[in-house]
Structures are given as C-alpha cells and as structure tokens.
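Q: How do we represent a protein-ligand complex in a form that can be generated token by token?
A: Start from the inputs.
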Amino acid sequence: MSEVHVRNLSLLYGTAKALDDVSLDFPDGQLFGLLGPSGSGKTTLLRCIAGFVFPDRGSVTIGGESVERVPVERREIGMMFQSYALFPNMSVAENIGFGLKVRHVTKTEVARRVGEALELVHLEGLGNRRPHALSGGQRQRVALARAIVTRPRVLLLDEPLSALDKALRSEMQVELRRIQREVGITTIFVTHDQEEALTLSDQIGILRAGRLVRSGPPRELYHAPEDRFTASFLGEANFFDGTPEEGGLRLASGTLLPWPGARAPDVRALAVRPEEMSISPAGLPAPQGSCVIHGELGLITFSGPTAVCRVSGEGQQFSVLVKNSELGDIPASGPVAVSWPASRSMQIRG
Ligand code: ADP
Ligand code: MG
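Then emit the structure tokens for the protein with magnesium ion bound:
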C-alpha cells in the first residue's frame, strides 16, 4: 500500500503562508487532482511530499510510514513537471533509463524495463531517437515513462500538460488516465484547470491561499459544492442571496426559492449551474416544483453547440446555457422567465 497522508502541514515563506494547516488523504492507487489558483500552494504541497522542502509544522506519511527523516532519493517518488526537460544529448531510451542506471540496475534489466515503459506509453521503436526529433506529445510521453520506470510508490505530476495545445492536451489527458490505471501508482496531479481536474481525478482537493477548501469525488464537489469558492471555481455558478425561511430562501424581491431537499444549516445563498436553467417567454406557467425568476434577456453568445444567454433579474445578472437547437423557442430579447427544478439548487453556506 502506498497511500499518502499529510497532516496539519504549514509552511511559511517569510510572512506568506504557502501552506496553512493542510490535512489530506491521497488513497492508494488513485489519481488525486489538486486544484487551485496560481499561488495557492499546490507546488509547495508536492515539494513537501517529495522532500524538497520541509514543512514548519505537520507530517507526511507514505504507505503508513513517516518520511520526516527520509531524503528525496529514498522516498520512491516519480515526478513530472511542466518544465521537466529531457536530456537533449541522450536518446529516448537513455533518458528513460537514466534513473535506473544511477540506481546501478544491470544493463539487461535496464533494457528490459525501458522496453516495457516505451510500450506502456506507446512509443515502441522510438528508443534511439533524440528528444529534438520528437513531437511535443511524444516528449511528454518520454517524461512520463521516465517518471514511472523506477516503479515509484507515488507519482507527482505538477501541471504536466499545461504547455500543450488544446487538442494534444485532451489526447494526453486520456493517455495519462489510461497509463495511471494500468500501473496503479498513487498519483497526485496538480492543475489549475478545473475541467482537467474533473476529467481525470478519482478525488479532488481544492486549495486557496494555502488552505484546503474542500476535497471529495469530482461529481460530489460539482453538484454539492457547499461554499462559494468551490461552486465558482469548479465550473460556473449563479448565486442568489437571500434570507432563509421554513419553506425556502426568500430573495430581496420577495421571490421564494424552495429548498432542494433537506435544509442545510447556515445557508445564505442558493447556487445554480447555467446548464440546469431554462428560458421561456414571460407569462407561460412554470412547471410544478420548479424555481422561477423573471428577468430581461440580454446578450446571447454562441459557442458552437451551445449559447450563453445573459439575463438580468433579481437585481443582478446571471448566465443560462442553452442548446443552439433550443434557441428558436425563446425570444431574441425582452422579458423572460428563467426556471430550473428546485432539486438542482445547491445550498451555499455562510
Ligand atoms: P502554486 O503551485 O499553487 O501556484 P506555490 O506552491 O508555488 O503555488 O506557491 C505558494 C505561495 O508560496 C505563493 O505565494 C508563492 O509566491 C510562495 N512561494 C513558493 N515558493 C517560494 C519560495 N521558494 N520562496 C518564497 N516564496 C515562495
Ligand atoms: Mg505551481
């Protein structure tokens, strides 16, 4: 087993809290996505786990053992960073085998394991190439092969795909997921891209200013975010603030939005994803059990298969995502009713 636990990690750079009392569990064999804006402490957390920096407080365990006194090279960690350059003067095979060679693995064993790694990342036959003769995606595969050829207990990936263009990036996301499943190494994947985190991860942790905001399975965090930061960082959300009442949340205009099930404590707002809402011409009766807000349709922005409609209502602006095929059913502008099933409202605390 090689699960990773961090407990109460804090690290100060001068007076800046890079990590502030972070506790997280990274389950054995899973792919854990660490998400957060730039400067939120993602890289620092990886560096603490790898052993490049030491926390002021807190502990790191790998496979149940404290690694406080274990140096980087004995933590059995594989790493891949965005800027993790390959050695330009070495062949692909030499690059991949480097970590084995310095560990004094025999030549035949190195050759065998490099062959396996090349196969795993689908680069069979390219072992003799130099890095400059590879495409960007192929170089990423070499870097990944190099990170896993030593059979690490934990794989740390720090924004490994952020230098790639969109098409290559989605291809590598699928590949990374496949390879991680095949080798089953506990993996911590840092990204600032929420879609990437949702696509790839078994579990997600969200960092903000050195603190862990929330962690859990992607769907749970997306559909029941609980706090404003998680709701708006993982996708888009429209917020409606109000006063909690027995039957629902009372907005300033008097509109009552019914609770989406059992009322959670400390709820001060409801959030709704733009794709859960629909628009209809004003005056039509709303379906039973739905929330309705009356507003004024403004700008409509097309983006391929969908369009984003900006609506003003309840003293604010919000977005509604509609399929292009549904655009014919709504007016081009003017008064509209925006509705959604009450069960799709998300309760936001504080
Ligand atoms: P992220 O990877 O999420 O972008 P980092 O972990 O790199 O964030 O940084 C967290 C905070 O710590 C930032 O405010 C950053 O400026 C600061 N920081 C990181 N490394 C150092 C360092 N070596 N010296 C001083 N401050 C640092
Ligand atoms: Mg970083």
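The longest helix spans residues 166-183. The mean pLDDT is 94.
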